Structure formats: structure tokens, C-alpha cells
Amino acid sequence: MLNLKNKKILIMGCGTIGDATAQILSEFGSKVIISDTNKLALDRTFLKLSGGNHRKVLFDVTQIDKIKNFMVDIVKFDNAKLDGLVYAVDKNLTASLMNTSLELLQDVMMVNFFAFIEVIKAFIGEEVYNPNSSIVAVSNYASLGADKGQIAYGASKVAMDNSMPAIAKEIYHKGIRINSIRPAIVQSDKQLSEREKELVAMMQTGPIDPKILAQQIAFLLSDASSGVYGRHFDVRGYLV
Fold first, then answer.
1. 3-state secondary structure at position 176
2. What residues contact 50, with CB distance under 8 A and at least 6 apart?
3. What are the angstrom distances between the C-alpha of 58 and each of 33, 184, 233?
């Protein structure tokens, strides 16, 4: 059993993976704070949490100038610093090359990379984190080879992944680790496109159960993964 009891973890993003992660961490006895721009998603996830002392906060990561205060407020509401952070915010916009506008590129990069960097910078402030903290970013298989239409999305995940080793080396002395998971097609309520069905066939294992990803994130947040810095955990079955 992973020891995450009474750990205060901030999960940003209540999509499929963030939702499953929040549930798993609450079952492990963590104090979970969830944030999202979508109130319905936020409420839905909050109702699934086990135990008490959890909190939900409506927040938009594109409000770059408010990220630091947001993080400080997360600490101030109960005067307890954070033990972990999961960045599961994700902007996946697809477009052909000719339809990949500067605005679309900026929109995707803002959420998946620029805001991610600002969140990390805010987290490592002395007033925010506890020693032996861990950060887990949710990347995507697209960073290894974006599919048609994933120009902006793939580039944003490449940026996230390539920043990881450098960040890990800079924050090591603070007692903070950072790693990521890099899943392929994840099981969800949405219908798969024909291309996604082809990728799932190549995976041979079927779409990835988000609960499995949540357990892997829990492992990376726990002391059981001490010694793991700046790494990407690929979860893609037999898809090469």
C-alpha cells in the first residue's frame, strides 16, 4: 500500500485522468484539492471523493498573473503546505496544417506549456510546498510522434516533456521531484474516432483504464518512487 495518508495534493484539471486520480488519492487518505475551469466537472469529481477535508476551486490556468496567488491561497485556507501537485490540465485542439493558426497555437501552448511552467514556479515557492514533495505532469503519447491534425498539441507536449529534465535538476536541491506519465488512448465516455480505433488496435491492450494511470500517478507522488527524477512513464501497450 502506498503511503499517501494525510498528504495534501493539488490536482489541476478534472478531466478523465484528473478525475480518476482525485478518487484514488482520496481513497489513500490524502487531502485532495481539485481545480478546473468547468464547474460541472469540478462538482462531479468532488462528489466522488472518499473521506473529508477536501476542497474544490474554480480556476483558469490561462490567468497567468493569478497563478501565484491561487497557489498561496490553497495553502492559506488551512495553513498547510502542499505535498504534491498533479498537472492534468489539457488542451487538445486538432487542425490541419493550413488551419493551424497562430491563435490556435498560442491557445494550446498557453494551457499545456506556458501555464504549466508558471504553476511549477509558483509551487516551488518556500511558502507553498513541504520538503519531499512530488510533481506529476500528464503528458501524452503525441509528444513522441504527433498524428495528423496534432501539430499544436504534439508540439505543446514535446515542450512539456523536454522541460522536465531541466526542471528536475533545478528543483532537486529543494527536495522536490518532478516526473510525467505519457499515455496513448485513454478509456473515456467519448466515442473513438476511426484513427483512434486504429491506434487502439496497435496497442493491442485496449484503451488505457484511467484508474491504472491514477495508480501510477499515486506511485510517483509517493516516497516509493524516491530517486526518480525528470522521467516520462510511457503507457501505450504495444504501440511503438
1. strand
2. 23, 26, 27
3. 11, 28, 29
Q: Domain locations in the chain?
A: 8-235
Q: How confident is the model at residue 133 (pLDDT cuts 50, 70, 90)?
A: very high
pLDDT band at 1 (very low <50, low <70, confident <90, very high): low
Residue 146 confidence (pLDDT): 86
Contacts of 37 (CB under 8 A, 6+ apart): 58, 59, 60, 61
Q: What is the mean pLDDT of the chain?
A: 94
Indicate the pTM of the whole model.
0.94
CB 139 within 8 A of CB 89: no
Q: Please write the tens of the pLDDT for every residue from 60-86.
A: 999 999 999 999 999 999 999 999 999
To 5 degrees, how large is the angle CA 155–CA 156–CA 158?
65
Q: What is the CATH number of domain 8-235?
A: 3.40.50.720
- Residue-wise pLDDT for 115-127, tens only, equals 999 999 999 999 9
Rounded Cα–Cα distance for residues 97 and 79 (Å): 48
Report angle CA 94, 16, 240 to the nearest 5 degrees. Answer: 60
89: its cell numbers: 490540465
**Dihedral pair phi/psi, residue 32, rounded to 5°:** -105, 130
Q: How far apart are CA 184 and CA 162, in angstroms?
A: 18
Using CA atoms, how far apart are residues 174 and 121, in angstroms rounded to an integer? Answer: 12
Is the sign of the CA dihedral 203, 204, 206, 209 positive or negative? negative
